[in-house]
Amino acid sequence: MSKKVRKVSVTPLGAPVAAGLVLGPPLDKLVEIARRKLGEFIPLDQCEHGWLYHIKARNFRLGIYNEVEKEFIGIRTKFGSRYLFGEYHWDTGEPFGTVKPITKLEQAPFEKLSERDDGDAGETIFDWLEVKDTEYPREKWPHEAPGHK
User: Do the beta carbons of residue 47 and residue 101 sit within 8 Å?
Assistant: First the structure.
């Protein structure tokens, strides 16, 4: 006796699709499934303004969350230059959401992060982040070890 095999297409989040409708868990469960597939990270609504986070991002690994812009501020290195740069939280969506905050570390001593490009304020943030880069060295984060993907 042969079994009939029914082909079922699946959405990128793993939910079955039938006649154009997604069947299965409610939307919040799908978000949870997607989050697991992307790797665990702190959601945007749980990030706190002015706190330093260890992050997975395109250009830096430590960033201060700026609630006003929904971004993380860190030190970017490009063509030999080092400067403050902002990257948006993953939850802000494509194409700009590139940061996945992993660990909340400590509160930064700055009131206004939007002034990062204004002379002394920017230098102070930059200097503080450089110190934190030595306090939280790369070796402490297993997923950043050489050869880890």
Answer: yes
